[in-house]
Amino acid sequence: MQDNSALIIFLPLALGIIMLGLGLSLTIQDFRNVLQKPKAVVVALICQTLILPLACLGLVYVFKLEPALAVGMMLLAASPGGTSANLYSHLADGDVALNITLTAINSALSILTLPLIVNWSLAHFMSGDQAIPLQFAKVVQVFVIVLGPVLIGMWLRSRFPAFAARMAQPVKILSMLFLFAVVAVALVQEWDTALIWAPIVGMAALAFNLVSLAVGYCVPRAAGIDQRQATAIGMEIGIHNGTLAIAIALSPLLLNNATMAVPAAIYGVIAFITAAIFGYWLKRTHAAPVAQKASR
Questions:
Q1: What digits encode the pLDDT tens for the residues 7-19?
Q2: Whether the Cβ atoms of residue 76 and residue 209 lie closer than 8 Å to each other
Q3: Is residue 153 within 8 Å of residue 23, measured between CB atoms?
Q4: CA 88 to chain centre
């Protein structure tokens, strides 16, 4: 694989700026509303920690992936939601406060669930002893990237509400430009990797991404959760933290296996595209009933 350092540095930086913009649209009451209705959080956690790892395991067998790629897929499934899910949810009119809450909770839970799932995968698919210690530092990084800029943005809104209102649309446009930049960086960094491995693991990564989006949206809707929260959960469950998975796979202190990073690298490029299409579809389907009600 090519060196992923540019992607690993640029992505958190870009997302930190994006999260500052999202904070401008949030208030403390938004988070109180989420915690007063914990059903959405519980359903999302069930999808993330139980349904998706099992679905990923099934796809590994369906596509008959070699052991290192199989572990890489399970590492991806065990990774918490990516911080970019917050932006996609925002653009699709989802409940961003729920997204941020889920990202924080999933990141905390991942210090237990990620090592358990990946260590089981190593024992199941590969020979040799490799284990992942609890990665508190990685969790702290996610908290800083997500919560730090959001808190700054919320503080700015509370102190300068007129400024926050004026900046809402420009920040949304700027956020979309950042996303395009992230996709471009990912493509440049992983172009050779994608060409080599796409025929082998590309379809498995695409299938897992589509399953993740479908589970994240359809299960909450079936459980009676409203459109905005289901949209938020769909993005949270559908966009895994590929950067975290790549870092764990490549780290000399952890897995130190470039092949295991391939599924996350390819998935990261795929997810940016499919999430954008999914968000556009959700916004269009949700806008139609609203327009019909307004015309009556």
A1: 556 656 666 676 6
A2: no
A3: yes
A4: 10
